Amino acid sequence: MVHLVAGLATSALVFPLASRALRERLTRRWSRRLLGLCRVSLAQLPGAPAAAHALVVANHVSWLDIFVINALYPCRFVAKAEIRSWPVLGWLAASAGTVFIARGNRRELRHLFKGLVAVLHGGQRVAFFPEGTTSLQGEVLPFHANLFEAAIDAGVAVQPYALSYVDAAGSYHASVAYVGETTFVDSLFRILEGEPVQARLQCLAPIDATGAHRRDLARVAQAAIGTALAAHVVTDT
């Protein structure tokens, strides 16, 4: 609770006056502390260097995803509107620059798209979860291609990130699943009461968006993440 209150105070009092670099440092530090309190350690797997200016796409497993990525490479996120209603963390995500989008709202999508292109033109890193919802670990749902157009219009690469959560044995951690009827509170307590979690993030090779079609970008990014995830865990033979 102390950590959450500190985050609220920082977001309300410091962020409005802070430079982008300071906001990123504070976001990284706060996210790392939150994960530590939840007994989630970070492991960055060997891969490509994280681009400082790119459209980042990742598979979506848990509410932890935003904080894992922000603990390593703070981004401006695009996330589903439901996240905004999460107790405290939803408000903090909004304060950190997350943009929320309602499913099926085409007018809002067009407005958001223009904003994404402007942010990318400004040299920032923007991230979203193209599955549109959380999925079971080891699965990657089809990627929605619409927002990939922002990379094409902004002239930046698409960089896939592969995310997974494992236990001490290196197998997918059972407590992290956030699908079906699981609520945020249920998920939070399951993680707090379960065994320690290791979050694994792997930055994959950037995909050149020059002259590409958004559906091709989505397909290549999905395949790259699926291939990477297959190597993240220990499997029985």
TrEMBL record:
The domain of life is Bacteria
What UniProt keywords apply to this chain's record, in alphabetical order? Acyltransferase, Lipid biosynthesis, Lipid metabolism, Transferase
Keyword Cell cycle in annotation:
no
Protein known as: 1-acyl-sn-glycerol-3-phosphate acyltransferase
Q: Which residues form a coiled coil?
A: none
Phospholipid/glycerol acyltransferase domain: residues covered? 54-166
Which pathway does UniProt place it in? Lipid metabolism
Task: Spell out the Pfam families in the cross-references.
Answer: Acyltransferase
Originating organism: Massilia hydrophila
* GO molecular function terms noted in the UniProt entry: acyltransferase activity
